Amino acid sequence: MTTFTRRGCVMTGLAAVAALTLASPAPGSTTDTANTANTAKAAPRRATPVRMTLPAPTGPYQVGVTSLHLVDRARRDPWVAARPYRELMVSVRYPARAAGGHPRAPQMLPGEAAAFEDWSNFSADIPKGLADWGATLAHAHLDAPVARHSGRGFPVLIYSPGAADPRSLGSTLADELASRGYAVVSVDHTYEAPGVQFPDGRVARTRMPEEAGKAKTPAQVTELLKKLTAVRVADTRFVLDELGRSALPRPLRGALDLRAVGMFGQSGGGFTAAQAMHDDRRIKAAVNMDGVMGYTQRDDDPAHPSTVGTDGLDRPLLLMGKEGDDHHTVASWKAVWEHSSGWHRDLTLTGAAHASFTDAQSLVPQLAGQDGEGGLSRKTVEKLVGTVAPDRSVAVQRACVTAFFDRWLRGRGGKLLDGPSARFPEIRFVR
Predict the structure, then answer these.
(1) What is the DSSP code (8-state) at residue 46?
(2) CA angle at residue 71 from 67 to 74, to 5 degrees?
(3) N or C, which end of the chain has less CB nearby within 10 Å?
(4) Dihedral pair phi/psi, residue 323, rounded to 5°
(5) At what angle do helices 171-179 and 390-410 cross, to 10 degrees?
(6) Torsion, CA 349, CA 352, CA 357, CA 360, rounded to 10
(7) Per the record, which residues fall in region Disordered (predicted)?
(8) In a 3-state reduction of DSSP, which class is residue 171?
(9) Residue 46 has what pLDDT?
């Protein structure tokens, strides 16, 4: 999720949801196919939209991916009252034995790309028509055969995206972790993401601008943030339930080790990871990438703490923040830090911005103006993804997140998270 500013206050977690109406009008329709306006300032147009690429994974495995359509009939949809059940789409990435004959998966399906173009967290900064969101390919191959595994299967990692972001914006890190022997389950939070495309072609469009528009008072904003987090945690727990109920296609059954589950996410997804671990003992370790963990409109405001803040955690937590975000400056991080008995670390990625912890780190710089053609200014690029070199930012995140889960889900050694490393001078350990 990108960073918004309101009345001089920088907001980087779920708090940015309260500012969504500044970026775009509400969809204005209760149907799944409502259209929204893009409000980015006009910029010189390129002759054709930019086609972007994502960095390839570096692990020893090729990567396969399949999608699951999960239906929770025990829960009404919390965002659309007329729907008597909750539907989710998730992607499962896994180590593959071979990828020949299996095409690379699109980062976004056509309906998701169209919805993202119409409205997203980037709408105020990226002009409509500049990017070809539907052209980017992930490095996971559709339904490739699963690699051989031990009797326990591959450790499982749940990925939750930033508030109002699609699961596809975490493709780079998900592909990397799968290439290193993990099964990565990425969750779209329906009616929160810009668009979620189901197997029958339906596209559930976001309701977040409309919901934010209803929150007229600080108390209502707080309640919206609480609801959004509660929905996300409930989605996560349902997905874990379904994975244990043979929701997987036959080739993947027995390939996932549900006794070794971790979770990671950016922004609101990082908060979701920490809160879900607090609420569900099945989650053994979590990574929060620049996500505020309280129900507040200001990062430095300790009001309205979450239970993960008041109780802390007794299992491992890795905090990764942009420049300026750490447990000394973000009140909710301070609360979790002081109340946690489990292993915890606080790392700053120097030169990073909030969206650096998503695929935007690689994609946005490709939208910069070149050769006199229209594109994003350097100022806009740095606003969205900071000044850190994209390849270094990606390398740091891959190394740190992999090292964290290797330590706590696989029991493997390694000293990367014990202190500063000459290999990764971009990481600062916050004491």
Answers:
(1) P
(2) 155
(3) C
(4) -55, 125
(5) 50
(6) -150
(7) 25-58
(8) helix
(9) 60
Q: Where are the alpha helices (DSSP H) in 119-199?
A: 171-179
Q: What angle do CA 340, 293, 159 make, to 5 degrees?
A: 95
What are 236-294's pLDDT values in tens digits?
999 999 999 878 999 999 999 999 999 999 999 999 999 999 999 999 999 999 999 99
DSSP code string of 265-289:
EETHHHHHHHHHHHH-TTEEEEEEE
Mind listing the domains of the chain with CATH numbers? 4-429 (3.40.50.1820)
Token output for 8: 């001089």
Are 33 and 132 a contacting pair, CB within 8 Å? no
300 alpha carbon, distance to own chain's centre: 22
Low-confidence stretches of the chain (pLDDT < 50) are 1-13, 21-31, 33-43, 371-372
Three-class DSSP category at 180 = coil
Give residue 383's Cα distance to chain centre: 19
Segment holding 139, helix H or strand E: strand 137-142
Q: Which amino acid is at 378?
A: R
Look-up of token digits 């955690």: 313
298, amino acid identity: R
Given the structure tokens 């708090």, which residue do they identify? 15
The DSSP result for 407-425, as a single string, is HHHH-----GGGS--TT-T
The phi, psi pair for 347, rounded to 5°, reads: -115, 140
